[in-house]
Amino acid sequence: MSRPSDHIDSPVPAPRDGVIQPKLGPIGYVRYFWRQLTSMRTALFLLLLLAVAAVPGSVFPQRSSDPNGVTQYFSNNPSAAPTLDKLQLFDVYTSAWFSAIYLLLFISLIGCVIPRTIHHAKALASPPPKTPARLERLGAFSAFEIEADASGPALTAASAVDSGRAVLRKAGYRVRMFDGRGPDGPELSVSAERGYLRETGNLVFHFSLIGILLAVGIGGGVGYTGQKVLVVGQAFANVRLTFDAFTKGRFFSDSDLQPYRIRLDKFAVKYEESNRNALGQPIDYTADVTTFDAAGKATPAVVKVNDPLRLGGNDIYLLGNGYAPWVTVKNPAGKIVYSEPVPFLAQDANLTSLGIIKVPDGLASQVGMRAFFYPTAGPPDANGVLGSVYPDLRNPVLSLVVFTGDLGIDKGVPKSVYVLNTDKMTPLAGPGAADGTTALRLKPGESAQIPRGLGSITFENKAPDSEKADLSQSVQRFVSFDVHRDPTQGWVLFFAICVLAGLLTSLFIPRRRLWIKVVELTDGRMRIEYAGLARGEDPTLEAAVSAVAQRHSQQLGLKLNL
Amino acid sequence: MTSAALASYSLTAIYSAMGVYLFAFIAFTLDLAKRSAETPVAAISAPARVGLMSRVGGTAVLNRVPIAPSAPARRSNRFERAAFALTILGWALHVVGTVLRGIAAHRVPWANMFEFSLTASAIIVGVFIAVQAWQNLLFLGAYITGFSLIVLGFGTVGFYVNVVPLPPALQSYWLVIHVFVATLGTAFFAIGAGLSLVQLIQARREAKQFSGLKFLDTMPDAEKLETLAYRVIVVGFVFWTFTLMAGAIWAAHAWGRYWGWDTKEVWTFIIWTIFAGYIHARATRGWRGSRSAYLAIVGFAAVMFNFTIVNLFFKGLHAYSGL
User: N or C: which terminus of chain B has fewer CB atoms within 10 Å of its end residue's CB?
Assistant: First the structure.
């Protein structure tokens, strides 16, 4: 059987009234289930089920694409979230049920395409079938009679069918000659078939889908992804521990990491300045980097948003950026206890940014600060709250809410650098401060005293030499790079192209059989019959039969006016 | 000319196109009403199977083996012709408006939902006009012009945004390819869904479930409609497959992975799966006819859902509606 028995081209099963089904043994049941699984109906059902099963993944936040959304969902729906999590609705595409559907679908697919491949290989090796006795029963049929007294060069049945064979061969048909006797007289015929590529394309399409699935699966196993935040001037080496976050496949080993180093030299952002409808919209991000190979050879390179850097089998992407104000904290004696750039996370389009500063050692007690950075602080609103009105550095202001107490990081439990847990801390400046001290507000280059005489804090100006009013370079930016390695990416692309090529040939190349039959009638006349049979969708069959008739008659020196 | 002036001319052209489409829609509706009064003939005649043979320069007598004559083609009425002329006029204005928008923005006019509405509906109408050279599908005119009016109405009223520069993530030649092919696919799916809809009504009528809607007599029968729908939808399916691939390649350039189950990716995949199901349904015994027609309509509904609800209300990386 070339195709599942419920394929539209397969013969209709005979009615089963009164037939007693034989009892099935264990092997019989296995055969029965296999046949069910590989039937068209089951494949279709699984395909549509897959579409439905994919929907929840767009409704619920997914851990793979939106982990913060999942955290948020848990805090917004504390009662429903654990149940949904048990149903794997936050990991739909790796869930047991989604995997079950696509694995069954692919097994069904394999069970369908392998017998078809064998059948198709046989069809490719076999010549066209015998000409049917009654061509007029076929869908596309036309016939012409030629009188015996036709003048001009002699037209015999043999020469007519020979030229028909030539016409069909030229049109790309495989041909086979037959002769026999019909009810009206001796018949010579040519049987022709074309469009084997249709089935080939169809099989390529389905095998390539299997190829994509395998390539994606293997790629997930051997690849890795790392994220690294770099402030301008900083560098990182391609070693697992230097990444801020690192996800690896099951078969990944540290030796897969190519030795190289990248330094971020400059990061330029261009903002729209003339279009009044889009003032401040970023229109370009460019990161200038220097890469160093294992031998230490330096090469300058550029990373842009749609233009990743390829290095040592990795793709390095520019995915995020923001401001990294440099904060220095000194103890009362003037000794520096903390001095580093702090990456702040942007909260809105004008880059109002939130950052956390933790000073665990060196002061009389631990100090934590929740800081807002406004690249261009606008006038405060009625409640005295600031906001940024432009994303570039026009009027940078750092506002710090200061806490003291236990930062909760001494126990060795890893804590996010973007979260400050103030459960065991007392506010010193900002909302809740006992003496009403307001949040500290600093411009680049300014310092302030931390209340209770704990020390001082400075918002460093990184371009102190520029003119007093120009603060455009006073605060550094950071860039977040994604480093990816997916060794099977090229294979996925290759199979995807095969999918498309297979689809095109399987949908648009017609598979059809054509016959030209020349019948020598008893009174010396001749009848030429043309007929075609579609195999699969073939809306142009009749046109093709007409075209062959036309060309054939031209060959014979006849003019056919259609 | 300034960008703002060009954008306002563009909008004027679009409003004019909407006005013309409205008249085209009315004329197409009148055409349907008029069709009810026609004497039924097969709307699309079978192509001539045989012809006369004559010996070049000879005196041969060549007989044609008789075959049943094909039915005469239906004559178009004046509403139909007027409606089609209006559609072409409206489309010309529509294209001018869309092109002006692109010139105003110095880029392809499909970078946000407003522009996408303009381009998508222009391509839908364009494909509808072009398809007439292949098959007379003017009976879908009311559906196509009505649909385009609704899309343009939502586009201009609900989705309008001023011309703004492209964010860095969209600055890629893949914007030209990926989005344009997606639009082409949408256009073919729209026409396919219209044909499937008529097919469903026609099939019920042929099953003698009701006898009204006499204008259906002037349209092809359910089987012919199904074949037409299939041929249009497979073209859409090829475009959609390409969209999916081009999107994955772009995602690998811009986001560092070719597939990440972003909401838009999920829905593109769902639509692909539904139409793959449609094609398989056509090859499954018991699923031809109305069942596969339902799938075609569900598939197009998913395309619309993807364009509207997913764009506006679902969280994801394809946040380019500009709203």
Answer: N
* Chain A residues near residue B260 by CB distance under 8 angstroms: 64-65
Instruction: Report how far Cα A388 is from the mean position of its chain's Cα atoms.
Output: 36
Instruction: Give residue for tokens 């290759």.
Output: A494
Please state, in angstroms and rounded to a whole number, the distance separating the CA atoms of residues B124 and B189.
Answer: 9
Interchain CB distance below 8 Å, A149 and B65: no
What residues contact A516, with CB distance under 8 A and at least 6 apart?
A: A161, A164, A165, A167, A168, A189, A190, A192, A528, A529, A530, A548, A552
Tokens of A209: 């889908």
Interstrand relation of A526-534 and A512-520 (parallel, antiparallel or unpaired): antiparallel
pLDDT number for residue A272 = 87
Q: Any idea what the Cα angle at residue A506 is, between residues A505 and A508, rounded to 5°? A: 65
Give the list of residues 6+ apart from residue A34 with CB closer than 8 angstroms, or none: A111
Q: Is the pLDDT of residue B65 over 80?
A: no
Inter-chain touch A557–B284, beta carbons under 8 Å? no
- Which residue carries 């579609």 as its tokens? A534
What is the reported pTM?
A: 0.87
Whole-complex ipTM = 0.87
User: Across the interface, which of A284, A493, A507 has its CB nearest the CB of B234?
Assistant: A507
A273-285 average pLDDT score = 85
Residue A152 is given by DSSP the state S
Residues 6+ apart with CB under 8 A from A396: A325, A373, A374, A375, A376, A377, A443, A444, A471, A474, A475
By Cβ distance, the residue of A66, A149, A283 closest to B168 is A283
DSSP A6: T
Cα A178 from Cα A501, distance rounded (Å) = 36
